[in-house]
Amino acid sequence: MKIIVAGGDGFCGWPTALYLSKQGHDVVIVDNLVRRVIDGELKANSVFPIQELSERVHIWQQVSGCGLSYEVGDVNDYDFLAHIFQTHRPHAFVHYAEQRSAPYSMISRKHAVYTQKNNVLGTLNVIYAIHEFAPDCHLIKLGSMGEYGSPNIDIEEGYLNVTHNGRSERFLYPKTPMSFYHLTKVHDSHNIHFAAKIWGLRATDLNQGVVYGIHTDETRLDRGLLNRLDYDGIYGTALNRFIIQAAIGESISVYGKGGQSRGFIHIMDTVRCIGLAAEHPAEPGEMRVVNQFTESFSVLELAEKVARVAEGMGLSPKVNHVPNPRVEKEAHYFNAKNTQLSDWGLDAHLLTDDVIAEAIEEVQHYKDRIITEQLLNSPDWRK
Amino acid sequence: MKIIVAGGDGFCGWPTALYLSKQGHDVVIVDNLVRRVIDGELKANSVFPIQELSERVHIWQQVSGCGLSYEVGDVNDYDFLAHIFQTHRPHAFVHYAEQRSAPYSMISRKHAVYTQKNNVLGTLNVIYAIHEFAPDCHLIKLGSMGEYGSPNIDIEEGYLNVTHNGRSERFLYPKTPMSFYHLTKVHDSHNIHFAAKIWGLRATDLNQGVVYGIHTDETRLDRGLLNRLDYDGIYGTALNRFIIQAAIGESISVYGKGGQSRGFIHIMDTVRCIGLAAEHPAEPGEMRVVNQFTESFSVLELAEKVARVAEGMGLSPKVNHVPNPRVEKEAHYFNAKNTQLSDWGLDAHLLTDDVIAEAIEEVQHYKDRIITEQLLNSPDWRK
């Protein structure tokens, strides 16, 4: 299968491209490399040094012998996108090419406008390019579990059957996202849902949980294939921060009480889910929604888990609490469904002590690269 | 009260600015005049000749002696918007400054992208400007009844209480809009709802029905104050088209069977609703939603109504049916609530035979201006 991985130079995109390539697909990475530029803007970095895209694609070709190429450009440039579609005629388009940090979108007006422009208009271009050049191409679009917010009812997979005054309707699940970034994913879903209806677009909308994990089977093959690992207050996740803090002997800092519950998924399962979605394309006119996570934890549970594993390794991190820069409920009902993944037969990798211990060890090898003042530099949502 | 009317050169904005000015408010029109440029792009026009903004503002000042000024610029230009807020320190910001035609948004990819960029990012700028420069300013935002689509349950006012698996939540009403334009209004509502939560923004989101009517009390005062009237397949409504077709002796053309039901409102009530919203500001942190229409009709009912009135005037229009260029349900459940308007005590102007007859007469005075090939030039949603 010919598959485009847009955003294929990023944290999820890179290992996805390798996995799909290894599975025998003919993979083309499309990326504007802006994530590397943003590292410069934020004076942040990845814990692990990552190779230039050209170099790591070359390494993969040498190591694996599998098909992988790349094109540098922006999905917001429709001439470029048209060229990609006309040249490669993809069967599937995996769309990671979005600004993916909630804190980044909350830094300033410019960052909010950039995020909404890049994500919403970029996806609109992708929808039009599929319609114009490859109407049978399956759009595999990355959303986020964060789109749902913290409703007081069960979180279903994308749709909700509502009975009201004796009549019934099946709606897109009503979402209450809590950042200008998460809002873009909701806007995208509405746009895609409409395109499926009017043009018969095939789409899979993957509402992904928080992704963690250092290696996949493919990135393990050569140090030059290492994936990025973010730990700063803008692009890093809470779990990454806790692992880094434990590894360098700092206190583990929890936002507020840490009662916020979230769905999680290992990067090895992220890439397998994309493979499963590609092998099971949505029907024409269908926007299929999958909640792509395998386990749930509260932030405090994560902190305590990391602290316990670190202790077993001879480290002694304390867990402390810092003011929450975000506006979010600290304690809330959380019961999210993820039945599609089981239906596809995904045998999940879980957040075991070994996974945490390996992550701490790997980070320790690169601890000199860590810029500690970046650990808690999230913008305040209220400003 | 100091009130900005953004989009104040348009069909709803112009009479709103005059009405608020007449009510004693200090009104500043903000407009980039793009609607006049689009007339050029589409080779379309208003049935009634409209004066340049500078001229008609001058006429109003002479005729009424009331406060009204204008500033030409774009809400997507944040420097300009910041200047507006810093200079005028508004108590209310009436936001009509959006591309408002569903067919226009469906002409091509460029038109879809322009519409989403202009509307969503423009509104994001407005939200930020209020937060930065006038946090107590009341945002009065125009939405559309078309955002709801045609759900099989009652359409409530903006929110829906859902009970699911024994638990309950109050959500933004889940919407299924059927154009890239209507989608922008849904995106806006989500963005505004979030800003209300995190920053305490005061907002009123007015989901307006189809607006009709030629004059308001204010535009009647001088022919130089005449409002625009669109009849083309892009910016004209079905009702306007029927009136023009009857006036010039053509057949009244209904899209499909004409079973589509919609909410309607007279332009005289549109302007009064804005006045009522301004006098009853939303609370800090509240996004209040009002369904702003006064009556409902199916498209076929409208056609038959216009045909009957025209017959009484000695005209003899036939009603015929043409293929529907839109993707929409031709027959559907429709029961939309509009209780807020009654709570505010709005005594509605209805679509009487006299209103239709006056419209036909007024159009007949200007029938030489009508470009008949523009009447049915809507793009096909499926292309």
Number of strands of chain A: 14
Strand portion of chain A: 15-25%
Order of helices and strands of chain A: EHEHHEHEHHEEEHEEHEEHEEHEHH
Which structural category fits the helices and strands of chain A?
alpha/beta
Itemize the secondary structure elements and their pairings.
Two copies of one chain form a homodimer.
Chain A: E1 2-6, H1 13-22, E2 26-31, H2 34-42, H3 53-64, E3 68-72, H4 78-88, E4 92-95, H5 102-105, H6 109-133, E5 138-144, E6 159-164, E7 167-172, H7 180-199, E8 202-208, E9 210-212, H8 238-247, E10 252-255, E11 261-266, H9 267-279, E12 287-292, E13 295-298, H10 299-312, E14 319-322, H11 339-343, H12 353-365
Parallel strand pairs in A: 1-2, 1-4, 2-3, 4-5, 5-8, 8-12, 9-11, 10-14
Antiparallel strand pairs in A: 6-7, 11-13
What would your notes on this structure say?
Two copies of one chain form a homodimer. Chain A has 383 residues and is an alpha/beta fold. The first copy, chain A, contains twelve helices and 14 strands. Chain A has helices at 13-22, 34-42, 53-64, 78-88, 102-105, 109-133, 180-199, 238-247, 267-279, 299-312, 339-343, 353-365; strands at residues 2-6, 26-31, 68-72, 92-95, 138-144, 159-164, 167-172, 202-208, 210-212, 252-255, 261-266, 287-292, 295-298, 319-322. In chain A, the strands form four sheets. Chain A has a seven-stranded parallel β-sheet, sandwiched between helices. A three-stranded mixed β-sheet of chain A has the order 9-11-13. In chain A, helix 1 (13-22) links the parallel strand 1 and strand 2 (26-31). The longest helix of chain A is centred in the first third of the chain and has 25 residues, at 109-133. Chain A is globular. The mean pLDDT of chain A is 97. Chains A and B meet through helix 6, strand 6, strand 7 and helix 7 of A and helix 6, strand 6, strand 7 and helix 7 of B.
